[in-house]
Amino acid sequence: MSAKQADRLATAGLYAVAGVILALLAGLLGYVFVKGFPMLSWQFITSPPQIFKGGGGVGPQLFNSFYLLVLTLVFSLPVALGAGIYLAEYAKDNWLTRSIRISVEVLSSLPSIVVGLFGFLFFVIYMGWGFSIISGALALSVFNLPLLVRVVEQSIQSVPRTQREAGWALGFSKWETITNIVLPAALPGLITGIILAAGRVFGEAAALIYTAGMSTPALDFTDWNPLSPVSPLNPFRPAETMAVHIWKINGEGIMPDASAISDGAAALLILSILLFNLSARFVGRFVFKKMSAS
Hints:
By secondary structure, this protein is mostly helical. 73% of the residues lie in helices and 0% in strands. The protein is globular. The longest helix has 36 residues, at 258-293. It contains 11 helices and no strands. The chain has 2 domains: 1-39; 41-293, MetI-like (MetI-like fold, Orthogonal Bundle), CATH 1.10.3720.10. Helix 1 (3-36) crosses helix 11 (258-293), helix 3 runs antiparallel to helix 8 and helix 5 (112-126) packs across helix 6 (133-157).
């Protein structure tokens, strides 16, 4: 076999593998949408669920998923940015930084249920916050921090050194070079890391069962005082997310239309992830253009 034939054969094999993966992904998404799309309506998206009768919705669960995502990013992003900048720009190559990187890699491979049990013991019991949004958000922050730290570090390291040298030539300090040149150039990679972390938050169930709980109290969506017990913004209330709700109704078997509700919730969850991803990329591209222009 000649080199050209081997190249064509390898190319055909790669195209075949990619086609199989795309077909599996399209089949999975198509199945979820075909089963769940008939359930999607404004009433389904905004109304609370029913337990012993059919016709409920997933409004509070959808709100809880986005609220938990926002709190998780608020807690984890500043820490991940600081740690990633330190490892990429300031840390020396010695046993300490190598130990930190190994620890980050080990933490990134922890099963989510282990993180959930840690969150249950520390945030729920030791801190006394009970099953609450803040307990779930902090547990997911621990779960997502290794991923975010590695993404931030690698995104910063991928910026060419010539750009840093250009900043130093203009008289910028090291910190000014990082904030004005390196971080804007690394922004596309940072946005990708945020999207990956958001997908894990939306789809996580095991860690939240032990921290955020499997119930949502009656909420008053006209009361936006975070200190009010019926406010949806109260971080110390239990919060059942979409993924937990899907697991719960299928496990309990009490809801008469559990199969239809879970199908609709799965389709809505995928649409929510898609909407967040597109929004994050649009905002990231807009910020990148503004920062690059300045």
